[in-house]
Amino acid sequence: MNEVSEVKDVAGTAPVVLTQAMEYCAQKMRLDSPQAVIDRLRAGNGQACEYCHYSVAKQVAESLGALDDNIKATYVYDYDATPEDLCFGEAGRALPIHLLVWAERKTAALKVLAETWDRALAQGYAEMIGGRQPAHLLDVQMVDDADVEKRLGHGALLFSVHHRPVQVWRR
Q1: SS3 category, 101
Q2: Closest residue by Cα to residue 23 from 58, 61, 62, 51
Q3: DSSP 86
Q4: Which residues pair with 166 in a beta bridge?
Q5: Would you tell me how many other CB atoms lie within 10 Å of the CB of residue 87?
Q6: Sheet holding 166-170, edge to edge
Q7: What are the DSSP calls for 99-149, one per residue?
Q8: In this structure, are strands 166-170 and 71-77 parallel, antiparallel, or unpaired?
Q9: How, if at all, do strands 97-103 and 71-77 pair?
Q10: Residue 88 pLDDT grade (very low, low, confident, very high; cuts 50, 70, 90)
């Protein structure tokens, strides 16, 4: 698949990913509808944010893995938020969603693909939830085999005792 068609696929898939995340959250929280999830997200409900973010992370990871054979695994991890990062008020979970992508090697194509997902999801999220568009919905950090082996940078997270990321996809 070439880069242009991948970008078009991501732009068209982002609303589907967000809709599925709302449905997943509604099921997990035993809510009547995705609209009830949206209402909770607007109110800054942390549990709703966590379920939606997990679903988005898992779906994006699956897409990245399908589009790039270089990816070994993808993880989601928590990050200490600053006040300006908060989702919808102080009760909400922080944006962006932090993904750690372990690839055999870091490539420009993978970077572009991650940035494309970020833009498409940020736009779709703003349209679905209402309000201003977040600058970023995804924070994708990439590590390669050398980073993991030497425990460099974000590669060290995979061995963290206190902040170990949660695997959402692997090859």
Answers
A1: strand
A2: 51
A3: B
A4: 76
A5: 24
A6: 138-143, 97-103, 71-77, 166-170
A7: EEEEESS--HHHHHHHHHHHHHHHHHHHHHH-SSPPS-SEEEEEE-HHHHH
A8: antiparallel
A9: antiparallel
A10: very low
Structure tokens belonging to residue 79: 């990050």
Residue 16 class from Cβ within 10 Å (0-12 exposed, 13-18 middle, 19+ buried)? exposed
Residues comprising the chain, all counted? 171
The whole-angstrom separation of Cα 163 and Cα 111 is 24
Which residue type occupies 91? A
Report how far residue 21's alpha carbon sits from residue 35's, in angstroms, rounded to the nearest whole number.
Answer: 12
In whole numbers, what is the pLDDT of the chain averaged over residues?
86
CA distances (Å), origin 9, targets 16, 67, 110, 116: 11, 10, 15, 10
Judge whether residue 16 has pLDDT over 90: yes
Inform me whether the pLDDT recorded for 89 exceeds 60.
Answer: no
| pTM listed for this prediction | 0.85
pLDDT band for position 149 (cuts 50, 70, 90)? very high
Nearest to 20 by CA among 111, 103, 131, 128: 128
Q: Return d(Cα 59, Cα 120) in angstroms, integer.
A: 14
